Amino acid sequence: MRNLKLEVWRLEVPLKEPFTISAGTNTVSRNIVVRLTSPDGLEGWGEASPSKRVLGETLDDVADTLRRAAQDEAEVDYTSTEKIYEYVWGLGGAPSAQAALDMALLDLYAKSLGKPLWRLIGGYRDSIETDITISLLPPEEQAKRALRYVDAGFKRLKLKLGRNPEEDVERVRAVRDAVGEGVWIMVDANQGWSLEEAKWVIERISSLDVQIVEQPVAWDDLDAMAELARWSPIPIAADETVKTPSDALRVAEKEAAQVINIKLMKSRGILGAARIAAISEAAGIENMIGCMGESRIGITAAVHAAQALRNIRVYDLDADLLQADCVFPGMGAPAERGVRRAPGEPGLGSFKPNPKYMSKIIG
């Protein structure tokens, strides 16, 4: 990237509360932030939120990929989305590092044209309404937290399940009883159930106005996903199953889901996400967009993608809201009672490093 200056920071920010899914508990968000600067002074921002469990990568893997990019002598053409895609996917390495570079290069692209990114890559809607995720807790605690979020203005909830089928049913029932009608609920087992357990739970929660069941079984068991998709009265969403456009094609061919959850870390960025959305739409599959543990930069990039692409109709962009402090206050796409809007300024928007949570490792 000899025509661009690359700077990289490690970011570490605690969560407001421990966050538990079927696979374990997390108390801190650890990400990597990148900034590309062009010769004429434009800045492009991106963020990597690595996942060992989903993507097989670590923070060190991300840093190694970015060091390799920094040492690359090739010139990168950020004036073409196709050339950005070609460069990012040709780079290889840690998927979330590729996602961070995709964001930063697209930020430069849009800033060079003086337009918000979402306007240039689709421009379909001017805001989105995110859900907020409730950690895997005892039923009564999930219900209390659900009420707290509804009181704060959120109308959409995502419940983490997947450890004990009987308790999972009680979790959903407790939350629905607490929030009443009119609050949108989806559930996510994070691969925590067997096929038989998934059917048992779905049968019992189908009367509780649940909209989506996300990744009920193991990511690589497409036969089980397809059986559930055919049988379930509630739409089935594939998350960990789909990381790339070719994964989306396999799900479509197997008819293994009614919804595919796009995450920029899995899709290597916004341009990969757009290809997954196109395949999904052609197959009659709806998209949602989710997140890993991103701060405001990564979430803002996902909001741009969500506003741009018509087939993305469900929004799970809340990771920064679960952090104890906003790393980039007043910047990007904040949430106002669940509603997010991408900034009206060019590119992704403006960001400034926060030394409280960030330490530079490259540049």
Short description:
The chain is of the alpha/beta class.
List the helices and strands and how they pair.
Layout: E1 5-21, E2 24-37, E3 43-48, H1 52-55, H2 59-71, H3 81-91, H4 95-113, H5 117-120, E4 128-129, E5 132-134, H6 139-151, E6 156-160, H7 165-179, E7 184-188, H8 195-205, E8 210-214, H9 222-231, E9 236-238, H10 245-254, E10 259-263, H11 270-282, E11 286-290, H12 296-308, E12 312-315, E13 335-336, E14 339-340, E15 358-362
Helix pairs in contact: 2-4, 3-4, 6-7, 7-8, 10-11
How would you describe this protein?
By secondary structure, this protein is an alpha/beta fold. The protein folds into 2 domains: 5-114 and 352-362, Enolase-like, N-terminal domain (Enolase-like, domain 1), CATH 3.30.390.10; 120-340, TIM Barrel (Alpha-Beta Barrel), CATH 3.20.20.120. Helices cover 37% and strands 23% of the residues. It has an 8-stranded parallel β-sheet with strand order 5-6-7-8-9-10-11-12, covered by helices on one side. A hairpin with a 2-residue loop joins strand 1 (5-21) and strand 2 (24-37). Helix 10 (245-254) runs parallel beside helix 11 (270-282). It is globular and about 60 Å long. The two termini are 13 Å apart. The model has no long low-confidence stretch (mean pLDDT 97).
Largest sheet: 8 strands, parallel
Task: Sketch the topology as an H/E string, one letter per element.
Answer: EEEHHHHHEEHEHEHEHEHEHEHEEEE
Question: Helix count?
Answer: 12
- Strand elements, count: 15
Shape: globular
Low-confidence stretches: none
Q: Oligomeric state of the chains?
A: single chain
User: By helix and strand content, what is the structural category?
Assistant: alpha/beta
